[in-house]
Write a structure and sequence with these properties.
By secondary structure, the chain is mostly helical. It has helices at 2-10, 29-38, 67-73, 78-89, 94-97, 99-104, 111-116, 135-142, and strands spanning 117-121, 129-133.
């Protein structure tokens, strides 16, 4: 990710996305998948994938709006590292330039839910949000 971010900064690149602000940039999908998984509850050999909850002591999803927490967590977590990079290169209110991430930050049931179920905008004229199962499914639909 450091190489990609260095290229973006050096050449002032804009990712070519088909959804504009209503989607995640293709180059940064994997950190959101892995980063949210880093905060999911631990599972044993016989356990299923968690669909709710978080590891004890992990930050809340809403903490992506708190600069001090983002700066602390970005050193250890890919999700917060990606949010920190957005904060480094974007100006203006977070909800305005990153509405999908802002909507995701409102999930109250923890990182397990973010990793497994999250909102994406529909093509409806009222900009309703629909929920799809998991970031990996969205990655397959949007990137691959």
């Amino acid at each position: 990710m450091r190489v990609i971010r260095r290229l973006i900064l050096t050449y002032t690149l804009e990712p070519a996305g088909s959804h504009g602000v209503w989607g995640l940039d293709d180059h940064s999908f994997v950190p959101y998948i892995f980063g949210s998984a880093q905060y999911c509850p631990a599972i044993g050999d016989e356990d299923g994938m968690p669909v709710e909850g978080s590891l004890p002591g992990s930050p809340n999803p809403a903490d992506i709006a708190r600069k001090a927490i983002v700066d602390r967590e970005r050193k250890h977590n890919m999700y917060f590292s990606a949010v920190g990079f957005i904060n480094d290169v974007k100006t203006g209110p977070f909800w305005e330039h990153s509405p999908i991430l802002f909507d995701i930050s409102g999930v109250r049931t923890g990182w397990g839910k973010i990793n497994k179920v999250w909102p994406v905008p529909s093509s409806c004229e009222f900009e309703l949000l629909i929920y799809i199962q998991g970031m990996i499914k969205m990655y397959n639909a949007e990137v691959l």
